[in-house]
Amino acid sequence: MTPPLTYLQFHLVFTIPPIVVLGWLAVQRDRARWDRTTLSGLAIIVFLAVAYTTPWTNALIPEGVWWYGDGAVLATIWHTPVEEYLFFVLQTTLTAFWLFQFLTVSDTSLRLPTSHRLAGILAGLAVCALGWTLLETTATSYLGAILFWAGPILAIQWGFGLTYLLEKRRQVLLAVGVPTLYLWVADWVAISLGIWVISDAHTIGIGLAGLPLEEALFFLVTNVFVVQGLVLYAWVLDRRADLVSLPRVRRLASQVLSRSADS
């Protein structure tokens, strides 16, 4: 059955308009963060999102974890529709533009306790291990695939900056929560219209108002990747600039004092 909306039309209705609005607001609002740091961070996160998600989707689609309605996609590259690759870019941009509306950086040192870094790494690896165990049965395979795939990224991000992310938890929660809720609704609409279909055999049968738990989890963890990555990136660049400039300030101050003493 042909769905009433194609996948490309879905983007024209659900993903591109909010990106345009949020991008315009970020440019117009003085309180929004729109500079070389945020835009370079977005470019890096987009590249990583496409590179990391591409093999994952191309492994799951042939297994029948999900598929697309007749005539819903223009073409496929490998096993994945071109519109799905576009989704990797558009979702990342949507979430990033929302974060840019209120992104701030705290004056927190990059030198975090080793125990905090270790705890972050272990937490991410625990997610990965849980996913691995869930891959063993068909009904939990999609859930397991999400957790196994998400674990390494979480281990890297939490291992590097868990302490800082906890410090900025309100900002992170707001940046993750709003676009996740929006994409849950958009995903539910797409599934209801038959643009894509989630396999009953590969899911546990628990949903949120008709949205499969696995789909809800996917959009949650991917937005966590984006937000945490950008928050940490801005933190590192801001702190690196401080660390580089501080010795220069000290040298300039010493020179001024020396000249004053000589005179």
UniProtKB/TrEMBL annotation:
Per the record, membrane topology reads: Multi-pass membrane protein
Q: Which GO terms describe its biological process?
A: carotenoid biosynthetic process
Q: Which residues cross the membrane?
A: 6-27, 39-57, 85-106, 118-135, 141-165, 172-196, 216-236
Could you list this entry's UniProt keywords, alphabetically sorted.
Carotenoid biosynthesis, Isomerase, Membrane, Transmembrane, Transmembrane helix
Q: Is S-adenosyl-L-methionine set as a keyword in this record?
A: no
Which molecular function terms from Gene Ontology are attached? intramolecular lyase activity; lycopene beta cyclase activity
At the top level, the lineage of the source is Archaea
**What pathway does this protein act in?**
Carotenoid biosynthesis
Look up the coiled coil feature and give its residue ranges. none
Where is it located?
A: Membrane
- Could you tell me which Pfam families the record lists for this protein? Lycopene_cyc
Q: Where is the Lycopene cyclase domain?
A: 27-94, 156-225
Show the GO cellular component annotation of the record: membrane
Q: What is this protein called?
A: Lycopene cyclase domain protein
Species of the source = Natronobacterium gregoryi (strain ATCC 43098 / DSM 3393 / CCM 3738 / CIP 104747 / IAM 13177 / JCM 8860 / NBRC 102187 / NCIMB 2189 / SP2)
